[in-house]
Write a structure and sequence with these properties.
Shape: globular
Strand content: under 5%
CATH topology: Hyaluronidase domain-like
Strand order of the largest sheet: 1-2
Radius of gyration: 14 Å
Number of domains: 1
Oligomer: single chain
Length: about 130
């Protein structure tokens, strides 16, 4: 089953689950550059970049990335490339709700945020590749 996907996608999920969001961007950027019409990859990229922005205190950038990631990934609901897109969308909604109203916060304040983190796994049974 997993042979259907680029290795970078599988590594992206691993790095995401380890909260290595900068590395997530690097992993997907190359395959996204080859498939720029793939809004699924773009949505995942933007989710990871949003989390990286958050880690740096850039709330405005995080909000923008989460909002756009949600917009791109909606078309792939409920599931795509054996990932529960509905679960990702729900997570993005939680992220948006948890962001403070300010546009930027000091770096040392970021870890004080009660921010949701989640891991994602590929679905191994009942696969459907719905979406665009």
């Amino acid at each position: 089953m997993q042979e259907r996907y680029p290795e970078q996608y599988l590594q992206f999920l691993k790095k995401f689950n380890q909260r290595e969001f900068y590395d997530c961007h690097d992993l997907l950027e190359d395959i996204w550059m080859e498939q720029k019409t793939n809004k699924f990859l773009q949505g995942l990229l933007q989710m990871a970049v949003g989390l990286y922005h958050l880690e740096c205190g850039n709330i405005k950038g995080a909000r923008w990335m989460f909002t756009n990631a949600h917009k791109y990934l909606r078309a792939y609901s409920p599931q795509y490339w054996d990932l529960s897109v509905d679960e990702v969308l729900s997570y993005l909604e939680k992220c948006l709700q948890a962001l403070p109203s300010s546009e930027k916060i000091p770096y040392d304040e970021v870890e004080k945020l009660d921010f949701p983190y989640q891991t994602f796994q590929l679905i191994t049974e009942g696969n459907t590749d719905e979406g665009q």
